[in-house]
Amino acid sequence: MLADPATRDAIVGLVHETYRRLSTPGSDPAALMAHPDFAVAGSGLGELAYEAADTRGMAEAVASWAFTWTAEAITVWREGDVAWAQILGSVRTRRDGVEEDVPYWTTGVFARDDAGWRWRYWGGAEPQANPRV
After folding, report:
1. How far apart are CA 69 and CA 22, in angstroms?
2. How far apart are CA 44 and CA 117, in angstroms?
3. Which of 37, 65, 87, 93 is the most exposed place for a label (fewest CB within 10 A)?
4. Which H or E run includes 118?
């Protein structure tokens, strides 16, 4: 079931803040993903993290690149104290003086506690025009 407006607004706000931090070196994006059971699957081979130290390292590395993360469409569903979101967007990369907008889709899972909604899982994907699978 699609999330109620208050849940949607909270999750969308959290996603935008996370993407802002991922775009800003030194902004501590890992603080938003600090739950001990948080897990990450990035879009690259080997981009997996299941422990807080690994998650922190991945988030700090991504933020250090100063790429610009943009969420263009966010759909949020909710059941009880769990919500999940499909986040369709892009990342503006800068390598060797060349800028490129790379499509990037995220599946986010969130859980609500006394402090509000918090990340529990990040699944990243870089969709391709000619996928092999």
Report:
1. 7
2. 27
3. 37
4. strand 116-125
